[in-house]
Amino acid sequence: MQNEELEEKVNIMEELIQGFAGRISVMETSIAEFLKSFLEQYRGTLEMISARIETANKRYNDQKIQQQIDELKDVVATVPKVIRVKNSHHLGAWSKNLIICLVVCFVTMAGSIGTALYFYHQNDRLNREAYNFWLVRALYPEVAKTIDAKLTEDPKGFIDKAEKAMVKQQAIIAAEAVAAQAEQDQKEAKQKLEKVKANK
Questions:
Q1: Of 36, 87, 106, 198, which sits most exposed with the smallest number of CB within 10 A?
Q2: DSSP code of residue 79
Q3: Alpha carbon of 154 to those of 71, 147, 148, 149: distances in Å?
Q4: DSSP alpha helix (H) spans, 42-78
Q5: Cα separation, 125 vs 116, whole angstroms
Q6: pTM score, two decimals?
Q7: How far apart are CA 110 and CA 105, in angstroms?
Q8: Are 136 and 144 contacting, i.e. CB atoms less than 8 angstroms apart?
Q9: With contact defined as beta carbons under 8 Å apart, do 158 and 150 qualify?
Q10: Distance, CA of 91 to CA of 105 (rounded, Å)
Q11: pLDDT per residue over 82-104, tens digit each?
């Protein structure tokens, strides 16, 4: 019974293999015919492409190209790997003179601006003093006459006396300012003391 089943299976396998062999042979012939028809259809195009390739190969000489490549390799081999470059910067005579002139102009301009600002402030101070003397002359004509008389009699001595009086007045004003500040500090200290006593 088993032998019969095996024989049947073997027969079935043989039939399948024969069917596959037939189909493969049909495919081989159809592929060959397809390739043959393809080549016949595009034969002209392929011949034209091959002719162009041959023309291009003939146009460029392989030996000449190889010779040029070898020459280029030789040139590249002779080029040094590191090229040292020395830079030196120097100023010419014209450049030095220009820089010196620019520095001199800058210093002159800075000095002129500083002098102008100084004279501007001095002029303001003198204007204030002149205005003050004008007020004294207008409001106290007797005092102004006395000052003019003293200046004509002994200008140097009167100016020295006036300068000493100005220094004395400035010292008095400074001492009064210090005293006022001390008094203010003392008041603030008393207030703090009173607050501390009130909080206890």
A1: 87
A2: S
A3: 107, 11, 10, 9
A4: 43-59, 62-78
A5: 14
A6: 0.34
A7: 9
A8: yes
A9: yes
A10: 20
A11: 767 777 766 677 778 888 899 99
